[in-house]
Amino acid sequence: NADAEIKTDIITLTRYLTEAQHDLGSYATGDFTLLCHALQFSFKSIAYYIRRATLINLIGLAGSANSTGDDQKKLDVIGNDIFINAMRGCGKVKVLVSEEEDEAIIFPGNGKYAVVCDPIDGSSNLDAGVSVGTIFGIFKLDDGATGKAEDVLLPGTELVASGFTMYGASANLVLTMKGGNVNGFTLDNALGEFILTHPDMKMPKSRSIYSVNEGNSLYWTEGCKAYFESIKYPAEAGAKPYSARYIGSMVADAYRTLCYGGIFAYPADKKSPKGKLRILYECAPMAMVMENAGGLAITSDRQRMLDLVPEHIHDRSGIFMGSYNEVMKAKEILDKLDSK
Ligand code: P6P
């Protein structure tokens, strides 16, 4: 209504980082803030291309092929290039691991941070208009680090920050710092600013929503089968079955789980013995968000996801994450029926 109060005290991501730098003391130095500004720029750029992807890819709008007729780059290549250039450009990153790059990228200079990312997670869903996103994690390198892939073979507990963007109806950024809470920002396209819209996001401890690809149930372990049976056919008298919600894009399933609660799982199974999702730039960053929002994240053999150390930069893991009580319920049944 006309006299609705116009908010004039807007917290942008830039302002949040400045204030967080003050609160987070030691590692949130100016370098960290400049690195986050470069991250922010890459999210804005990727959001722009995603919004136009259909037009560019499907009707060859100007820019989809240059004068020499080069093929229009697939969006995940564009996203990857934007991300790499933004991380190189800020001068604060020494090591960059991307889902799109077989090897770690080592930048010249004396950047103090390592970044792990999946520039466009879920890109196979793009043509169907399903939300995709960027998942990222930031490590502070040890003083003696010389800049090599091994510098990021660390447990997720070492992450100083992590989060993801979901490019949906609007571009939503979820950001959490080590030992901090979870904050959600929405990109205001008119201002070109991420605005704090979801301060201190907390998941309910319980919520009867489960999110898993049931098309894999043929390959599930006995424990996994028993757990999902127990929430679909509850034994307790009068108990209602859980609702199934599976989008097939991790950032979208994670964002819904963060907003509503419930459990998301991509279990290791007979088809994918190590699971499908990557530890460094899918499971660990998401696990840190879930834990800082009051939830849990465990591997298929029920280890804390954030304690898992990858042997190689593209290693995978099974994952169960979401509301505290929901993950504990799954753990209880898996512990009983599956081996460690
Ligand atoms: P499936 C998308 O390809 C992705 O990497 C994640 O975003 C998503 O959670 C998962 O794979 C979906 O895998 O086997 O269910 O299609």
Helical content (DSSP H or I, runs of 4+):
25-40%
Give the beta-strand count.
Answer: 15
Rough outline:
globular
Tell me the structural class.
Answer: alpha+beta
Strand content: 15-25%
Kindly, what is the distance between the CA atoms of the first and last residues, rounded to a whole number of angstroms? Answer: 59 Å
Characterize the biggest β-sheet: 8 strands, mixed
Query: Order of SSEs, N→C?
Result: HHHEEEEEEEEEHEHEEHEEEH
Mean pLDDT equals 91
Short description:
With 340 residues, the protein is of the alpha+beta class. The chain has helices at 13-24, 30-59, 75-90, 222-232, 250-260, 279-292, 324-337, and strands spanning 93-98, 105-106, 113-121, 132-140, 159-167, 171-177, 182-188, 193-198, 209-211, 243-244, 263-266, 277-278, 296-298, 316-317, 319-322. 6-O-phosphono-alpha-D-fructofuranose (P6P) is lined by residues 121-122, 124, 213, 248-250, 253, 276.
